[in-house]
Design a protein that fits this description.
Four copies of one chain form a homotetramer.
Chain A: E1 2-5, H1 11-23, E2 27-32, E3 37-42, H2 48-52, E4 60-64, E5 84-86, E6 89-91, E7 97-101, H3 108-121, E8 125-127, H4 145-158, E9 162-165, H5 172-178, E10 181-184, H6 192-198, E11 205-208, H7 215-228, E12 233-237, H8 253-262, E13 267-269, H9 271-275, H10 281-290, E14 295-299, H11 317-327, H12 333-343
Chain lengths: 344, 344, 344, 344
């Protein structure tokens, strides 16, 4: 931590800060500049929050942290990439894992036909909501346990492991019985009671980034899971809130690359929520694949215009197949020749 | 709902939409323009979500809602303002209620001295966190039940009703036993399991706006409480996330005025979280008072530089007294003369 | 500047930074912590940009500035508040100056009737656009010189000094001939060619904050004017872009208080653009007055529904009168008693 | 346009709107719903802005446009993609054109060595700033005409056409004499005087998206160029301002795909400004290539830590070569097998 004193800070104020830094268990190194004085708190065994509070002390301009606040999720602590095993499907091993399925589980027919179609097209995991977080209390809230039972049948019938959202601690047990991976939705990214509970389950967690969470806050949410005992975490970027209204959210693909740079955890992208427009899902999926994402999560519905939720951003089976085929196409074939010629 | 067809929509596509509008329980009114056709779904008994999903149908450009999605919180449903009674303190009756206290309850001495000081200066309710939502798992997480007990003692000893945050459904019961008002924090504004649970308690709720929640989403979160049976809701604007980094958040005071225009619920402002800078708390408090807010919630600590959380944005006793005095000063005395002269 | 080295920075990398700091004209103070090393560049005569570029050097985590980048606009350089004289009207002297008028000058009748009405209600300056920045090339672009002539007549006929927007260097001369204050619009806040040109005129400048400009960037734009020779600058907050769509922009009133804290320049607020909703203009005007703003700029039109631009956010004469009267009302009369009782 | 009346709008208010719609040159179609009435203005010859102003009329809730406001840039007007010829280099023909070079032209040696290196690695155009828009007046402002002369020499010596920024109308002529393509910087995207002037030059324009411009506003800025007579416009996404501070801006790659969907103009991406972090430039470049962008613009400097501007986000020659090679690598080779197997 660096404590940056105000220009007119008095000697007493500076001495007070030096005393408080020592009291907090750190050494104090002082740099007196032409305009102001800086106090650096050095050492590793002290109480960090006591330094942060010094921003409130007289004569202090600001307190600037110089180390990342997360530990267990960091590549500095664990340089090699983590691989998360979801009932036999490996995320983070260099492959590109596509998770697909309906926003909400609506019926056996809807779910089974979707499972069959997405598996045939190359998806490795099925998504489907049983408990739905909805902005309005008057919207469809999900089928609950009935949906969980259908999801379990999918796994048995089609050999597709399933991912479903958990909205609160009271649902953790029943979801663990039925699903292979538990999703923490964007709105719950900082539901710390839920995170603490999920740190104790033996299922992998898909942790979505909150719509206004910085990459640091997202990694710190994951830190709750790892610090609590669950190392099986996959991060998922699903778009942030910005002023742009043509897309439902702004899919921050740089955050996928950045989270993979700062952390060893696998990171996937959700172009369905990330854009909210069907036409943008295939190009953004290719973009995520190109920059090294560990996979995708995509909404697919047999008949989007009859979906009980998220219809406008759902692909039908044929569009999903087209998306999967586009992932097998080359990046930019003309560049191969260009760059070869240039480097000869 | 208006279904806006694409310019090149075919007659079949338009007819399909007309059929689907009727199937969803509405009448379809068609307007054929020079460039495109609009289908208006008219009536009140239909299934709204079926119309929304039509954004996914062929030939549809967009589906535009023309009515607000909230009902019970709306002034169209209840034009007269609601007054919420918090153990005898009335919020929403035209008065300006100041809620003050420490971010976290840290000790009996800290809490009691603060309670005494803020009461003396004019605060009507005490705030104090027992369960703290913290970005990092390594930060102080609150004293829990021990803090709740201290809060109850404050109420008895000082006659100050207390407000404290509830972070999950598992804590609702114990908090209801000790506190007079339950706060839903910004990060939990769309924790729908929690909202559904709090709809069933007989304590008033202070519902903070999420850092990336639109005013509509905030009102819909309140709608969960009212629709579930709890009409005693006070809204609290506490700043939204923007690109500006000089302030911790951007306090959106227009949302206070707007929420009071759209809803009958009382609305208070939180300049402590809303700005994150002590120097800005008094001017923003005066601004909130001037525009008609129903009150404030402000962080006060005996020694901000030793606070276990939110020190940089906490006022000490003397600064809080100064804030209260500034609320008793006139708006702009010189304008009284100016405007009188002008209108003579 | 503080150069924060990476955890694994080598001795050679650290030495390289020390050498480069000296080469840039500063002294280098080194602090070796338990995890990483910090190099502080100390002194005032060096080349700051050479330090900033060191963020690109091997082994460097980040370069953190510890001094504000602006000088002449700063209260550290000039603690006493500046007063800007606009043809005899003083902005910044503690009074609350209301600038009012139509978005665009449309006709003699429209302009004169508005001038008469706003003056009668207490406005001190008239605003009116001659050259209009419009998002679309197909929208009304202003009457140009014809409008300027009408504005000059207003000043003569009604004794109201006039403010009008300048969109480019080519229009500076003619506007200076006709207007008393030149407005730099939000979209041009970082039109540096224009700022450099306006630094050379002898008229005061109303500098609007850009819709995505931080307070620092805004003050640095003003610094261009002061550094170039024009000290007569009034800052104007007019709302920033955020995710909220119920209001046209988010009026960041904290930035008004903050700009007045960091700078000696007067600061006014524009609730018309800042909210885009007529109903919110009076409460936000009162809020601006309460926190100490130096004035307001408000759009007024004889018949908003016939305005060629910005009708939805314009007040008619009667609404403007109501606004002015509301500025003469007390802040919160009940608080006077409350606080007195509390402090007895 | 749809004029959405308030729930309690009176018959007189509705009739007034019907009259005004007709007066503005449109037909009025009325839909009376269970709760409110909608008036649709139909026809193509009317005065659109008169309808927009009706938002200010009594009884009106909102006025909702149902057609895109841009015309000439739209794919509805011109479905086939435009190809822009920059001194023989074609942008928009399906190839992926890389523009590279220093942020600022600093010296002959710096510029020539960079031109040689980027050409060898496969770049097709050189970028380099002669006039620099800088946030602070105390930062390096560019070498001006001296830089332009060096740029012209590059074109002659290395056969690389050059792109440089134009900051104001006064510089248009001299830049046209020296450069092959004129860049409008992000801060000037809505400098309408500049856009109107550039509509009259016979050089192609690279139009950067403003940091807070919506895709619609960006396309309308391009509309100024096309409507004024210059069809040779390449759009460039360079990141928008959001709450995320780990990256300098948030590169909105979905806007590249969306702009290509809505418009026939070519669209390139700027990952240097878009991220501000060297490590993120290669992955975001691959992402842009994968989603169909027409090219890139990238900052390259012989020694980024000595750059006079934008060092932290500049690549050195070796990193740029690596970037170019990465563009020639396959998208995700493992998906080829996966998807083939799936579709067998």
């Amino acid at each position: 931590m660096i404590i940056n004193m105000r220009e007119r800070a008095s000697d007493e104020q500076i001495q007070h800060i030096i005393d408080r830094v020592k009291e907090a268990g750190f050494q104090a190194h002082i740099t007196r500049g032409s305009e102001r004085t800086i106090v650096a708190a050095v050492g590793s065994g002290g109480r960090r929050h006591e330094l942060e509070a010094l921003a409130a002390a007289a004569g202090v301009e600001e307190v600037v942290p110089i180390a990342q606040p997360f530990k267990l999720v960091s590549r500095q602590v664990k340089p090699q990439r983590s691989v998360v095993d979801v009932a036999g499907v490996h995320i983070g091993d260099g492959s590109f894992v596509v998770i697909a399925g309906p926003c909400s589980v609506e019926s056996e027919e809807q779910l089974f036909s979707t499972a069959k179609a997405v598996k045939a097209a190359g998806a490795k995991l099925l998504r489907g909501g049983a408990y739905k977080p909805r902005t309005s209390p008057y919207e469809f809230q999900g089928l609950g346990v009935e949906a969980l039972k259908l999801l379990r049948q999918v796994r048995e019938k089609f050999g597709l492991p399933v991912v479903t959202e958990v909205m609160g601690t009271e649902d953790v047990e029943v979801i663990c019985e039925h699903a292979d991976m538990l999703q923490v939705g964007a709105r719950n990214m900082q539901n710390f009671n839920l995170l603490r509970r999920l740190a104790k389950v033996d299922k992998p967690i898909l942790l979505k980034r909150g719509p206004s969470a910085s990459v640091k806050e997202w990694l710190l949410a994951a830190e709750y899971l790892l610090a609590g005992g669950n190392p099986n975490v996959v991060l998922c970027e699903r778009g942030i809130k910005t002023f742009e209204t043509e897309t439902r959210n702004t899919l921050d693909l740089a955050s996928v690359a950045l989270a993979r740079e700062l952390s060893h955890l696998p990171v996937v992208a959700d172009p369905s929520h990330g854009t909210g427009r069907r036409s943008l899902i295939p190009p953004m999926s290719r973009a995520a694949a190109a920059l090294g994402a560990d996979g995708l999560i995509v909404e697919v519905h047999p008949c989007p215009e009859r979906a009980l939720s998220d219809g406008p951003q759902s692909l039908d089976f044929s569009a999903f197949e087209g998306l999967m085929r586009s992932l097998a196409e080359p990046l930019r074939p003309e560049m191969v020749k260009e760059v070869k010629m240039a480097t000869v």
